[in-house]
Amino acid sequence: QVCAQLCRRPCYCPWVPPRCPRGSPLVLDGCGCCKICARRLGEPCDFLHVCDQSQGLVCDYSSASAGTAGTCNFEDDEEGCEVNGRLYRDGEVFQPSCKIQCHCLDGGFTCIPLCQEDVRLPTPDCPFPRRVEIPGKCCPEWICEAQDQQLLRDARAAAGAASPLLRFPCQEWGTEWSACSATCGLGLATRVSNQNRYCRLETQRRLCLLRPCPALPAAFPA
């Protein structure tokens, strides 16, 4: 009887369906008659204005007084996340974009990057590295800017002074030596440098000795 009062037959619907906000799909109303925008998490709902069932939402009347509308909520009070107008269930892994991956947990979400955040240092064969967006690819990539023509001429002029293994002069670069790996006795210190015959960045190691270790106590006689 209530359904007969709410649902009119035949259906009379707008010629143009409504434009829904992002994350709210078009669904049939509670009478199965006209297309409406599904209600999202936390929005009011009733028999006609249904919640987005694809997101696991139901119309919750538990906190509504008699005769008032309910509120769209997850079934069985399940927590979820809303990101960019879209709802995700608790425990769901999703990608808002191709560059990050997120995990919905306990009503919040954490994300990790999917693109490498590496750093490229200048090298003789790539003195001006630059990170750019490549059409058709999600993650930016490193490219080498063209060297100045004067720099190329200087390199050719100094080719005789360069190492016989290189076709260009090597501009030395390196980090400071790290702390010794041992507090006493022999240890290792490291640095990153291009001071080698190929002028390539490499990790270099050298022995270090801060102080001798104290002598161990003599063993007791058997």
From TrEMBL:
Subcellular location(s) of the protein: Secreted
Q: Name one GO cellular component term.
A: extracellular space
Pfam families named in the record:
IGFBP (PF00219), TSP1_CCN (PF19035), VWC (PF00093)
Keywords, comma-separated and alphabetical? Cell adhesion, Disulfide bond, Secreted, Signal
User: InterPro entries, alphabetically?
Assistant: CCN, Growth_fac_rcpt_cys_sf, IGFBP-like, Insulin_GF-bd_Cys-rich_CS, TSP1_CCN, TSP1_rpt, TSP1_rpt_sf, VWF_dom
| Domain of life from the UniProt record | Eukaryota
Is the Disulfide bond keyword given for this protein? yes
GO biological process terms held by the UniProt record? cell adhesion; positive regulation of cell differentiation; signal transduction
Coiled-coil blocks: none
- A GO molecular-function descriptor: heparin binding
Positions of the IGFBP N-terminal domain: 1-75
Domain VWFC, residue spans: 79-145
Keyword Cell membrane attributed:
no
User: Per its database record, what is this protein's job?
Assistant: May play an important role in modulating bone turnover. Promotes the adhesion of osteoblast cells and inhibits the binding of fibrinogen to integrin receptors. In addition, inhibits osteocalcin production.
Q: Which family does it belong to?
A: Belongs to the CCN family.
| Protein name (Swiss-Prot/TrEMBL) | CCN family member 5
Q: What is the organism of origin for this protein?
A: Aegithalos caudatus (Long-tailed tit)
**What gene name is given for the protein in this entry?**
Wisp2
